[in-house]
Amino acid sequence: MTIKKDASSGAGGALQADLFGSVGPPGLAYAENIISEAEERTLIARICDARLTPFRFQRWEGKRLTRSFGWTYDFETNRFAPGDPIPGWIEPLRARAARFAGLETDALAQLLLIEYGVGAGIGWHRDRPVFDHVIGISLGARAVMRFRRRKGTRFERAEAALAPRSAYHLSGEARNAWEHSIAAMNEPRWSVTFRSLS
Ligand SMILES: O=C(O)CCC(=O)C(=O)O
Ligand SMILES: [Fe+2]
């Protein structure tokens, strides 16, 4: 069962089982209400102003809009390079994400903003190995992050419900051994992902 920790109950607060009774892999940490509804609205407005562009891979164009800061990974050329500086408006959230994951704020060297319009999702993948820890904050509609790991000829599967204003942290097995994906959304969702470098 996915264990979900409510940030408002403080560190070491009561653990409660996920309402969906879903199963998350080891290395997945999850906390709800890491930002207020007012902060969520402000962040969504900032992301909408941040000139995101459709994610492209060869001749395929994804329905989600993305923009990265700090470091960029070009999926066409496999090139990993310094990018635009992480904007100041995201700093308070970056500090909170770092605290949630038990990392130094400066360790979160990459920022990825994503807008999932209706019909947009993200296919099965593991994040590039140039990155280490992955911390994601969800805004807008609730989503389900699905996990799978090959076991012989079959897949072992798990999933975690991502509430708006929640954060997840992928490390260890959830980060390295499992793939994750998000099914196409019926309502818009935005995500803010911070990653440390390997
Ligand atoms: O939107 C999310 O929370 C997940 C994004 C993701 O998996 C990725 O960009 O690698
Ligand atoms: Fe990912």
TrEMBL record:
Alphabetical GO biological process terms: demethylation
SUPFAM superfamilies reported in the protein's UniProt record: Clavaminate synthase-like
Keywords: Dioxygenase, Oxidoreductase
Residues covered by the Fe2OG dioxygenase domain: 107-198
Alphabetical list of InterPro entries matching this protein: AlkB-like (IPR027450), AlkB-like_sf (IPR037151), ALKBH4 (IPR032857), Oxoglu/Fe-dep_dioxygenase_dom (IPR005123)
Domain of life: Bacteria
Pfam families noted in UniProt: 2OG-FeII_Oxy_2
GO molecular function: demethylase activity; dioxygenase activity
Protein name per Swiss-Prot or TrEMBL: Alkylated DNA repair dioxygenase AlkB
Originating organism: Sphingopyxis flava
